Amino acid sequence: MSEHKTFFGKIFGWIGDIFTKAAKEIWNSLSTEEQEALKSGSGIINVINEHLDETPAVIKENILKEFPNVDLKSLFDLAKELNLPLAGNEIEDAIAAAQVWLKSKEGTKWENAASVAAQTLALILSPDKATRPAKIASIIAYVYHEFIKVHG
Questions:
Q1: How far apart are CA 76 and CA 132, in angstroms?
Q2: What spatial distance separates the first Cα and last Cα of the chain, rounded to whole Å?
Q3: Which range has the worst mean pLDDT, 10-19, 62-71, 138-147?
Q4: Domain total of the chain
Q5: The model's pTM
Q6: Engineered SS bond to 94: which of 24, 71, 75, 100, CB 3.0-4.6 Å?
Q7: Which range marks the domain in which residue 55 is found?
Q8: Distance, CA of 66 to CA of 86 (rounded, Å)
Q9: What is the percentage of the chain residues whose pLDDT exceeds 70?
């Protein structure tokens, strides 16, 4: 259990520990393919966020460096799912649409938008399109903190 000094800190630490344990159990119950889809979905959105002010070509290069086995055409599906307007038919157009959308959000809206994008992309990348969306939604924060943020 996390070490906290205040009463509320102890309560919130305990709740956080319960969430982490539950998320880890869900994570362990997923197939390897589902786990990879979650890592890739969260990681690709993280790459876009880290390079929001750079060109789509630079973002594409960074995505390919970190996720060489991911089909970048999935970014078109992401744009479609999020109703993002595309300027053309290149991968860079899908990246640019995601950049514009994420840049348009502020504060908590940005955090929520990034989470929605990561969850949506994870579902798109999942080999089983019936992957339980509730499971993905419940552990996307766990995946980000456990696997993506550690390396970022």
A1: 22
A2: 25
A3: 10-19
A4: 2
A5: 0.74
A6: 75
A7: 31-148
A8: 24
A9: 71
DSSP 17: H
**Exposed/middle/buried for residue 43 (C-beta within 10 Å: 0-12, 13-18, 19+):** buried
21 plus 86 within the same structural domain? no
Query: Per this entry, what is the length of the chain?
Result: 152
Tokens describing residue 144: 């980000």
Same domain, 10 and 35: no
- C-alpha span between 126 and 13 (Å, rounded): 32
**Structural contact between residues 12 and 128, judged by C-beta atoms closer than 8 angstroms:** no
Token code pair at residue 47? 């790459």
Q: How many CB atoms lie within 10 A of CB 61?
A: 14
- DSSP 8-class letter at 125: H
Q: How many CA atoms lie within 13 A of 124 on its CB side?
A: 24
Amino acid at position 62, single letter: N
Residues 95 and 37 in one domain: yes
